[in-house]
Amino acid sequence: MKKTLTALAAAVIAVGLIASPAVAEGERYVLISHAPDSDSWWNTIKNAIKLAGEQMDVTVEYRNPPTGDLADMARIVEQASATNPDGIIVSIADFDVLSGPIGSAVDKGIPVITINSGTQEQSLALGALMHVGQPEYDAGHGAGLKAKAAGASSFLCVNHYITNPASVERCQGFADALGVDLGSQMIDSGQDPSEIQNKVQAFLSANPDTGAVLTLGPTSAHPTLRALEEMGLSGEMFFGTFDLSSEIADGIKAGVIAFAIDQQPFLQGYLPVVILTNLTRYGVVPGNSINSGPGFVTKSNLALVEKYAGVYR
Amino acid sequence: MSTPIVDMRDVETIVDMRNIEKHFGPVIALAGVSFDVRAGECHCLLGDNGAGKSTFIKTMAGVHKPTSGEILFEGKTMSFDSPRDAMEAGVATVYQDLAMIPLMSVTRNFWMGREPEKKFGPFKVMDFKKANSVTMEEMKKMGINLREPDQAVGTLSGGERQTVAIARAVYFGAKVLILDEPTSALGVRQTSNVLATIDRVRKTGIGVVFITHNVRHAMAVGDRFTVLDRGKTLGTAKRGEITAEELQEMMAGGQELAKLEGSLGGTV
Amino acid sequence: MTDERVKQVSKLRRAMIRPELGAICGTILVFALFLMIAGDSGMFAPEGIRNWTIVSAQFAIIAVGACLLMIAGEFDLSVGSMIGFAGIVIAILSVQWGWPVWLAIMVAFAVCIALGALNGFLVVKTGLPSFIVTLAFLYILRGMTIWLSILTTRKTIIGGVKDVAEGDWLAPVFGGTILKGLFQWFADIGLIDTFIRGTREGQPVVSGIPMLIIWALVLIIFGHWLLTKTKFGNWIFATGGDSQAARYVGVPVNRVKILMFMFTAFCACVFATAQVMEFGSAAADRGLLKEFEAIICVVIGGALLTGGYGSVIGAALGALVFGVVQQGLFFSGAESSLFRVFLGTILIMAVILNTYIRRMITGER
Question: Which among A64, A294, C8, C18 is placed 20 to 30 Å from A229, CA to CA?
Fold first, then answer.
């Protein structure tokens, strides 16, 4: 038994040693997102920070709460702060929850850039240097205007991450642009693809004169594409989505999806790393926030997007 | 065999069950059983499997209520509504599956449900000093020297566990001790230890009801023997008035056992 | 007539062979490991220490409840959902309806304890496995949490609790920090770093000991004392060890089980309240999967899944191991997905070790 115990202890230590990576000589930055492990959208940002890290010769770590629990995310921000990195890049998934940890990091003297979720006002209130992202309400509103121009007066908003308030902002903007009250048209679809498909089909069967559908990302867009195909409704209604993927690109080419709103996450990962590195090395930093999106990707500007869909776009 | 004659007036009868019948729906489990236990005696209840022994002692222990018949406890008519009532009156049962919890220590098992307490400021805590010393003492009286009272019951042998259960019942004031097949799962040495314990217990004035289907064990300690067959008492005999073979025949109903005896050459 | 085949066991060995031994070994091993690979990463500086002690304290709070319940022979899978539900109740009552925060907290506790009693009552009356009954409540409560929050606020996060909690007397009991003076002194003499800008300039980065940790310690001590020193604790062991045998000697098995379900619910509510007070908001997805994590802590601590055997100190150490591992992997720079691999490995090792120790103690074959 003693032998077994010693062997097990040795194995644990070995795993630990293998698991800790070599620390780069250069600066170290930490990017903390709110996304659960299952959200594939952040792959673009992960690739972007890797590219930026190589180009700038710095280490960038990516951290996230495995289940998407924002309380866990707050802890991770605290931890990151405790290790005294050269800079922190973080999404403001919820101002109340994160204001404490982000504020503490700022007060300790760690430069912070906020990205993705959150508004420029919130970013300023926290003491961050700037916000790199896409204003959610405005993006939804822009999409809604396009839908209205195409003649839609009713809609379905497929929300696959309803616990994040920013998601509701998108649907709210869309509804307001159409001039409709946001009510049961926003459905909590969950994250499981078959569930999402079933819920979309159920809604469309119950509301056959729905004029437009808005999905908030590839997680909700792909099952919706399948749902429309099964119901024979592909191309029949105005379909707009947030974000890009190769399936969405195919949908645009086929004329099923009218546009994809690209908040250009590549910039949300790449730019903060470059900016923070230059700040650490030379003390320079741009004076205002950067809107990474919205970019509307349609059939006409699809080619480059297609080339890098899921990787950098 | 005749039904019991009340002729030993110098020994008090503790429990007297008269003409007990128990029906479970259309099934008649007991069809008129009479049985009594006196202080200081070991009254063996014998019968083959399915004879009704279990049902009968459960009735005595308050688990079942008799469909008809009388139960007298120390001369007064009693009706037990639950096993708790019977226990409080002084009828303690040690079941085959023992009611000992192997994961817990002997002390904790011994005092379960009746833990001694002492004050600790405004709180009450278990008085382990008293519990442990009493447990060690009672076990020693029964012939078991525990290594320490914290010892888990699981470290004791089957016979020792039986003894703990019996010691517990005795300590907490049992007047009648019902032992349900205590030796059926034990080896030779442990059986003799348990039988010795029964003898010891009987000598303190407690009435013991010893249920078994093993005639030799019964003959070793019994003062009286009652045989149960298909829900009816076949008869009661006193020690010395009957032989083991006769008892065995009564239990088995006679014929089949005789044939079996023949082919096994009297080894049963 | 002690059986001569039973060895005389040395006093030292006897002192060592206890239910918590596995968890003690695990704790020492884990600390040694992280001291080696993350010693200079800030993990053992004041900020880092606060980070993993808070996480461990959170796990410990619900692990104590889960431990006592598991020893009594039952599971509560609805703990995580109850955490989310209690949080939303506090937020809706105080932020949406304007009730004073102390009242909202008390109502949340009352509701949780009532739900715990309901769980217990159903398990005891129907005889169904608690696994099933509480699994049902896992879904029911989670669904109600999401529905209630959308119904009243159209969102699934309800913020603004920090504002309404200003001046409240009960809020700091859960979300406050104590020994602030001591830590300011630490900062002044240079033991702890201070903030260099903003409204908190000059204050220590770790301002004090969060009340969450105090709650954890109080619950651990209470749970351990209740289990090992009192009559009721003996009843808990008996209920889980063999409920039929316990009933037979008069232990009120049903009452014990229902009370343990209520205690687990109480612990869940402490967790939720502390979390809401700390973050100033409640969210519908809080507490997700926490019940399984609590059970893992309890099992690492040496408890038997089928009941009747276990240790609160062990569960607390299990929570410590869990917290140190979860946070330590970050500090050591390892991939965060490795956490689950690590946890599973530790779990198996802990169970093997604990089984061996238990067999030595209880004489199981």
Answer: A294
Q: How many domains are contained in chain B?
A: 1
pLDDT in the model for residue A216? 92
- pLDDT in the model for residue A22: 44
Which of C21, C88, C196, C330 best probes binding to A when mutated, by most A CB atoms within 10 angstroms? Answer: C330
- Taking the CA of residue B95 and the nearest CA in chain C, the distance in Å comes to 10
Query: C2, B83: Cβ pair inside 8 Å?
Result: no
Complex ipTM value:
0.84
Q: How far apart are CA A100 and CA A105, in angstroms?
A: 9
Structural domains in chain A, sorted by start: 24-134+264-293 (3.40.50.2300), 136-262 (3.40.50.2300)
CATH code (residue B69): 3.40.50.300
Q: Report the range of poorest mean pLDDT among B133-142, B201-210, C8-17, C286-295.
A: C8-17
pLDDT tens-digit profile of A56-86? 999 999 998 887 888 889 999 999 998 899 9
Give pLDDT, residue C336: 67
| CATH architecture assignment, domain C14-362 | Orthogonal Bundle (1.10)
Q: Is the pLDDT of residue A1 over 50?
A: no
Residue B108 located in a structural domain? no
pLDDT over 50 (residue B7): no
Put simply, the answer to whether B102 touches C2 (Cβ < 8 Å) is no
* pLDDT score for A40: 75
**Cβ-defined contact of C242 to B99 (cutoff 8 Å):** yes
pLDDT, tens digit (0-9, with 9 covering 90-100), for A97-155:
899 999 999 999 999 999 988 888 899 999 999 999 988 888 899 899 999 998 888 99
